[in-house]
Amino acid sequence: MDGPFGFTSLPMIIFFGSICSLLYYYGIIQWILIRLAILLQYTMGTTAGESLNSMASVFLGPTEAAILCQSALRTMTESEVFTMMTAGFSNVMSAPALITVSKLMTPEIQHSKQKDMKTFRFPQCTETSALESISNGAIQTVRIIFSIIANLIVYVAFVTFIDTSIHWLGECVGWDISFDKLMSWAFYPVAYILGVTENHDQTMKLAQLIGLKTVLNEFIAYQKMQDMLLNGELEGRTQMIAIFACCGYSNFSQIGQELGIFIGLCPKRTKSFVSMAVRTLIAGAISCFMTACVAGAIVSDATGCLPAKNIENCLNV
């Protein structure tokens, strides 16, 4: 983990966490969530529970979003639960896509009891002042920071070990193979479908990034993207589509966190959560890929941006 990422990107998470905590203290977050959820419910035909959860995942994260809907989780239909879990694997840009994919994979065939937004009550704010809310928001976000740092250390070491082992085994049999190449081959069909370019090499680069993001996590993928950009390996269009395709939490390590959250909130539905885990991961990944496809269709010619460079108009729409 280099200096710019460790001392600029991660502190931004602390700042954002404090701002969200302050907005929640004044009731602004609740006001925004309710109205966005109503809009989503009206335009997408979703129920109140899954609409609120999808919007809350955007602003608060999957854990806090699930807590907001804890009281309704016991009576939610299988389709609503599936949508809630999928939201934990997606991102702000893919909210409509995740609902679409979720409903295609698990259609609503039961009667929902969560159609009225008025049935939801937000947890009471425990802070007594704005300064306390800012402080608590920062403290709570620090836990996320340490989790990110710990995961980065572990996964970087893990990737290095696996890559070295695969390369050594390849040399034993006379093959030039590595972990990155395995990821490129495995996810090449996905990268090709995204329509990045007719250049085979660029498609392989995108497939490698998607593979790292799915098997490990998005931080590893973006760090690899940074190395590719500095080495001049990515074209502008490839960079743009990779940014959208890798922007999400649809990776295998997130499954454990998702199960921990939902099982902790509603132990009686453990079997349902476990049976949906892998499918919701796939749904979250597809929603991110759909967003990348839309970006590729809208932006005809993208100019690549180097890390730590303030370049205006990187995307020529």
What is the topology?
Elements: H1 3-25, H2 28-44, H3 48-59, H4 62-68, H5 70-73, H6 78-87, H7 95-105, H8 130-173, H9 179-186, H10 188-193, H11 200-215, H12 218-230, H13 236-245, H14 252-265, H15 270-298, E1 301-302, E2 315-316
Antiparallel strand pairs: 1-2
Helix pairs in contact: 1-8, 2-3, 3-4, 3-6, 4-14, 6-7, 6-15, 7-15, 9-11, 11-12, 11-13, 13-15, 14-15
Transmembrane segments: 12-34, 144-162, 182-199, 277-299
Keywords: Membrane, Transmembrane, Transmembrane helix
Domain Concentrative nucleoside transporter C-terminal: 90-296
Structural overview:
- This protein has 317 residues and is mostly helical.
- Helices cover 71% and strands 1% of the residues.
- The protein has 15 helices and 2 strands.
- It has helices at 3-25, 28-44, 48-59, 62-68, 70-73, 78-87, 95-105, 130-173, 179-186, 188-193, 200-215, 218-230, 236-245, 252-265, 270-298; strands at 301-302, 315-316.
- The protein has a two-stranded antiparallel sheet with strand order 1-2.
- Helix 13 packs antiparallel against helix 15 and helix 14 (252-265) packs across helix 15 (270-298).
- The chain is globular.
- The model has no long low-confidence stretch (mean pLDDT 80).
Task: Please tag this protein with its features.
mainly alpha; globular; single chain; two-stranded antiparallel ribbon; 317 residues
Quick description:
71% of the residues lie in helices and 1% in strands. It has helices at 3-25, 28-44, 48-59, 62-68, 70-73, 78-87, 95-105, 130-173, 179-186, 188-193, 200-215, 218-230, 236-245, 252-265, 270-298; strands at 301-302, 315-316.
